Structure to design on (142 residues):
């Protein structure tokens, strides 16, 4: 019986508390912790980031230029080593996450051979995928 308790998946009391509608959750344990992380969604792709991280987006952000500062509002998790706050999504008034666009590049040209069964024709599909690189400059709780 003791072994099953050691591998329990129960969440600590801080993680189980759900605030009522409109109530602001108590995030003081997270504010007292040093290093924070967050799970940010960009075009529905989750990225786990901390302050100073590089985010490599496998697509082109058309509206952003190099040097622009982006604010992230679609965040599902904010946590530290000991505490985690999960909501879908977290209210943007509770945190500030900013990133700077470092570069917008393309990957090297890639040639893929397209064939059909039992036919001799081989088509070559050429692609140069886009890539946007961001640096997380600010991650804090308000």
């Amino acid at each position: 019986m003791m072994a099953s308790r050691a591998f329990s998946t129960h969440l600590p009391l801080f993680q189980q508390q759900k605030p009522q509608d409109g109530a602001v959750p108590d995030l003081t344990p997270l504010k007292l912790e040093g290093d924070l992380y967050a799970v940010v969604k960009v075009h529905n792709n989750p990225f786990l980031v901390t302050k100073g991280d590089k985010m490599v987006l496998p697509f082109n952000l058309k509206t952003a230029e190099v040097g622009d500062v982006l604010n992230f509002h679609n965040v599902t998790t904010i946590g530290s080593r000991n505490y985690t706050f999960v909501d879908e999504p977290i209210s943007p008034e509770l945190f500030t996450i900013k990133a700077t666009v470092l570069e917008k590049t393309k990957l090297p040209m890639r040639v893929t051979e397209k064939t059909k069964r039992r036919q001799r024709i081989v088509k070559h599909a050429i692609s140069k995928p886009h890539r946007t690189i961001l640096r997380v400059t600010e991650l804090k709780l308000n």
About this structure: The first helix runs from residue 2 to 6.
